[in-house]
Amino acid sequence: MSRTNFDQLLQAGCHFGHLKRKWNPAMAPYIYTERNGIHIIDLHKTAAKIDEAADALKQIAKSGKKILFVATKKQTKEVIAEKAASVNMPYVIERWPGGMLTNFPTIRKAVKKMANIDKLMQDGTFSNLSKRELLQVTRQRAKLEKNLGSIADLTRLPSALFVVDVLKEQIAVREANRLGIPVFGIVDTNSNPNNIDFVIPANDDAKDSVEVILDACCSAIAEGIEERKAEKADEKAAEAQEGEEEAKPKRAARKARKDAEPKAEEAAPAAEEEAPAAE
Hints:
Strand content: 5-15%
Largest sheet: 5 strands, parallel
Number of strands: 8
Structural class: alpha/beta
Order of helices and strands: HEEEHEHEHHEHEEH
Number of helices: 7
Low-confidence stretches: none
Shape: flat
Strand order of the largest sheet: 5-4-6-7-8
């Protein structure tokens, strides 16, 4: 079953590409035609690619791994933040911190620094600081929160990257390529799709276009998370049942021993009575 239909994509304006003179020839397979100097994207191919990407994202989420969403464009920031947070995935909507993937331990240190500031503020360590020093610490904390707050729970490298506008986020794409992390990308007619593992050809500027694609992808991720929870619950139930089955013979043996004890006690006096008669 398709996760998006042609009409949904058309209504959201996913088919509008860039000016013909700005195109990247590598996007030719995804371009349907050209109107008034603007390339029109083939939405049938977009729909098929959304389904392909959504199925792959679902499997990643089902295996309990993290997908990092990246979009620093002004018009798509809010959409990315809302959709990624809805499926409990990390996201970057401010400036991409160079080396975030290739120098991940340094980024983790910055995140820990933020946690340490919080801890010291709570236990009263900062109460002796002057107003100026306290202001500096507060500003530093706010800056860290703005840039790294949304990846605070990312304790290891993500298993995939979802990028809106692969041309603008080319540093993030390059880092992921270098580390072999698969990249899912909304790719417009002015971008190069060759280094993107899951290409979604669509308008990457319009908020509605990005939203309709993210809706489909995030609902797939949510399905994967739910299936993982269901599988874990089934495993626990199966383990409990196995334990029950293993315990049955032990309980039966204990019951047999208990039942045998009174019989043994009854047999003992009878044996004592018979002993003199034997003489």
